[in-house]
Design goal:
The protein has one domain: NAD(P)-binding Rossmann-like Domain (Rossmann fold). Helices cover about 50% and strands about 15% of the residues. It has a seven-stranded parallel beta sheet with strand order 3-2-1-4-5-6-7, sandwiched between helices. Helix 1 packs across helix 11, helix 3 runs parallel beside helix 4 and helix 6 crosses helix 8. The protein is built from twelve helices and seven strands. It binds nicotinamide-adenine-dinucleotide. Nicotinamide-adenine-dinucleotide binds next to helix 1 and helix 9.
Length: about 280
Amino acid sequence: MKDVMILTGAGQIGMAIARRMGYGMKIVIGDKRVENAQAVSKIMNEAGFDTAAMEMDLSSRASIQNLIAKAKEYGDISMLVNAAGVSPSQAPIEAILKVDLYGTAVLLEKVGKVIKRGGAGVTISSQSGHRMPALSAEADAQLATTPPEELLGLEILKPENIRDTLHAYQMAKRCNEKRVMAEAVKWGERGARINSISPGIVVTPLAIDEFNGPRGDFYKNMFAKCPAGRPGTADEIANVAELLMSSRGAFITGADFLVDGGATASYFYGPLKPGGGR
Ligand SMILES: NC(=O)c1ccc[n+]([C@@H]2O[C@H](COP(=O)([O-])OP(=O)(O)OC[C@H]3O[C@@H](n4cnc5c(N)ncnc54)[C@H](O)[C@@H]3O)[C@@H](O)[C@H]2O)c1
């Protein structure tokens, strides 16, 4: 039996983190598009990793439970990498909330109940959650602690209160950060840690969909005018995941790390500020 990593979302960010942290483990890769999971599984197996691909849908509790059950057949689950998600140009409001918000909440809760002592997880949030204005303390608490099955019934997440897909995505990503804080308390009872990473623009198929979508010029302007002056790479997200998931991150849990080339800083205090700036 090996220690097991669950990887949800066989995209570029997920694969980069799995390659950085998953050596010597069994890596169970779940993706709604099973061909994506199979493609990543093949690349990694041919590079010396031990992976298995599965079809799974992050928006379905049953599918998440099935993934965890399959993973447990290989050994104890000691790592979680949640890099499954849909972006504002890829899906309607309901799907974004169901996958990115509800599904992530279920996954963190379910894995938190079985994670091995000393285990660690990361979930990929987004800079988008940082750009949205602060919510009320009550709304933050609701996003953090409402049972997953009741989340989408919250007033702040009702369709009439969500303006567009970008707003849905921002709410989902804000919720991810709050869930991570609340879950860190529970994961801590098992001696395990959970954190989130909020990437800026990272070149992946998802980001390329955004570059070619209705907000393409907005995104291209964002990386051109951020302090780094370029989009990021999945491997730079893995750099931070490595810190968070290794023993060097032993004192870090319930935290969110913004890794965006300074785009959020520029949005508030620089040339990316809406309506002008420097
Ligand atoms: N790329 C960026 O610029 C960027 C920026 C901020 C946040 N993110 C976040 O990073 C995460 C990973 O995205 P990526 O850029 O690596 O994208 P990607 O398109 O390379 O990978 C995402 C994967 O998730 C899978 N997926 C979609 N819906 C699913 C579902 N319901 N169940 C299971 N799998 C599903 C897709 O099939 C795909 O393989 C997402 O949560 C995204 O919101 C990406």
